């Protein structure tokens, strides 16, 4: 952890107050060489360039919520999407299989600063006003 923190902290002092040092800690997941990177450039684009990639992209489609498997806590079995004026689930084809030939599918949630937490809340993660539909533990009320 100290290695990550040492390499992800930027310090600077101002001319008005050289005795004060300001610290900015960047999450190593979203920063590379002190520059923010996008999930498209670092996750999706390399995957699309792989010859064995099995990726489906649905333009003009919004994710409403993530569907978790009630029998396998923590496993995603699909997503509910809105396309044009219809709302429907999309099920992951091999969500219950686990072998080297058919690895478990992944859902990469990258909807931005405000929409990603909203999707998680609609999916039952982070709410404690109603029973949680997943096996995740709520650690805070605010996901921002």
TrEMBL record:
The record's similarity note reads: Belongs to the GMC oxidoreductase family.
Q: Which SUPFAM superfamilies match?
A: FAD/NAD(P)-binding domain (SSF51905)
Read off the PANTHER family from this record: GLUCOSE-METHANOL-CHOLINE GMC OXIDOREDUCTASE, NEITHER INACTIVATION NOR AFTERPOTENTIAL PROTEIN G
Kindly list the residue ranges recorded as spanning the membrane.
none
Using the record's annotation, list all stretches that form the Glucose-methanol-choline oxidoreductase N-terminal domain: 112-126
Name the lineage. Eukaryota, Metazoa, Spiralia, Lophotrochozoa, Platyhelminthes
User: What is one Pfam family matched by this protein?
Assistant: GMC_oxred_N
Question: Would you tell me the protein name for this molecule?
Answer: Glucose-methanol-choline oxidoreductase N-terminal domain-containing protein
The GO terms describing molecular function are:
flavin adenine dinucleotide binding; oxidoreductase activity, acting on CH-OH group of donors
- InterPro entries in the record: FAD/NAD-bd_sf, GMC_OxRdtase, GMC_OxRdtase_N
